[in-house]
Amino acid sequence: MANRVASMIVLASVLASCLALGADRAAAAPKSCSRGDAGPHVRELQTSLKTLGLLSGAVDGVFGPATERAVRSFQARAKVTADGVAGPVTLAAIQGELRALARRREEQKRLDEKRASLERLRKQVLEARKTLGQAGGAAGAIVEGEPGRQPGSRGVIYLTMDDGPDPATTPWVLDFLKSKRVRATFFVVGEKAERNEALVRRMAAEGHSVQNHSHTHAEAEMAGSAAAEDGMARCARVIERLTGSKSKYYRPPGGRTPAELLAAASRQGHTVALWSNLWGDDARSAVAAAFDGAVLMVREQPGVIESSLPAIVERLAADGYRFSTLGP
Fold first, then answer.
1. Is the pLDDT of residue 9 over 60?
2. Angle 226-243/197-205 helices, nearest 10 degrees?
3. DSSP per residue over 93-109, as a string?
4. Does pLDDT of 129 surpass 50?
5. Which of 9, 14, 101, 252 has a CA that sits 20 to 30 A from residue 65's CA?
6. Does 22 score more than 90 pLDDT?
């Protein structure tokens, strides 16, 4: 019994010590930093200020004149009380700006990766074109189209629409293009074309080019496998049946161009058609990518295309470009 009581006394003592230590640490964690402070919390503040481009001095854990100037600069920028003291409001604002900076850097990273991916695609297609010996042939590989400048024009834009036909978007797209007297190239998905035959026939009847974008747009058709070649052939048969013309261009789903897929396109008499802009649902990307012979890709995305397509067409027409189609 005596041993049990002694053990309980020891345990109580340990718990009391732990609670006291926790309280001491909580008390030691400052809620603000000001001139003359020193320690890890100041070093953390200095690191944050340097990340935000406000501190040019050393990160030494000492809140000196340079740190105070950086704090005041931040406070002025954040429109909080500029007293040179990093209190709760200032510290919260610094953390908010750091999170915003991290988001911007992540967005820029994704943009850079997308640009690099597009550049790799271009190089890959051009190399495959050389390997297949199809340069200039009917079944080669096209990345950006062929220049077609005319007097008084900045050149030709090949406007291409992906992933249709879709009853939710395609009728509106066709109506808009007709109102602007613009002809485009529709890269259709075979199984969607089978479900919306009247829309495909309307595309052809109104002077648009109908081309091949695989039969199902599924993962198996992106890998250059037998499924990809079969999907290409099935979509080609649907297009010929509905329009009376053979498709000449093939746009691989996702823009993937493994050598096997390029070889399959060559066997089937298709030119692989990629695009010049980064995204298919962003008007700014398309306008920025415009040049004589550019192939601009626009996805038939409901709720987006209704604003992106007019912005692209109207801006480029105002800039002096004319529009043409790939293929018949």
1. no
2. 60
3. HHHHHHHHHHHHHHHHH
4. no
5. 101
6. no
- How many C-beta atoms surround the C-beta of residue 152 within 10 A? 7
End-to-end CA distance of the chain: 99
Which tokens is 201 given?
A: 């026939």
What residue has token string 């010590």?
17
pLDDT tier, 118 (very low <50, low <70, confident <90, very high otherwise): low
Alpha helix (H) residue ranges in the chain: 2-28, 40-51, 65-78, 88-132, 170-180, 190-195, 197-205, 226-243, 259-267, 283-288, 305-318
Task: Enter the pTM of the model.
Answer: 0.60
Q: What does the alpha-carbon distance between residue 146 and residue 148 come to, in Å, rounded to a whole number?
A: 6
Give bridge partners of residue 322 from the DSSP assignment: 156
For residue 33, the cross-strand partners are: 86
User: pLDDT tier at 47 (50, 70, 90 boundaries)?
Assistant: very high
Q: Read off the DSSP letter of residue 27.
A: H
Give the C-alpha separation, 142 to 158, whole Å. Answer: 12
Q: CB atoms < 10 A from the CB of 212, how many?
A: 30
In this predicted structure, the answer to whether residue 28 has a pLDDT above a threshold of 50 is no
CA 61 to chain centre: 40
pLDDT at 160 (0 to 100): 94
Residue type, position 262, single letter:
L
Q: How many CB atoms lie within 10 A of CB 289?
A: 19
Structural tokens at position 139:
């079944």
Round to whole Å and give the CA distance between 155 and 147.
Answer: 7
- Residue 215, SS3 per DSSP: coil
What average pLDDT score do residues 133-144 get? 40
pLDDT in tens, 283-306: 888 888 888 888 899 999 898 999
Residue type, 254: G
Pairing assessment for the beta strands 185-188 and 141-142 based on DSSP bridges = unpaired
Q: Which residue has the tokens 């700006």?
A: 97
Measured CA to CA, the distance from residue 20 to residue 23 in angstroms comes to: 5
Euclidean distance between CA atoms 261 and 229, whole angstroms: 7
- The residue among 48, 299, 266, 9 whose CA lies nearest residue 165 is 299
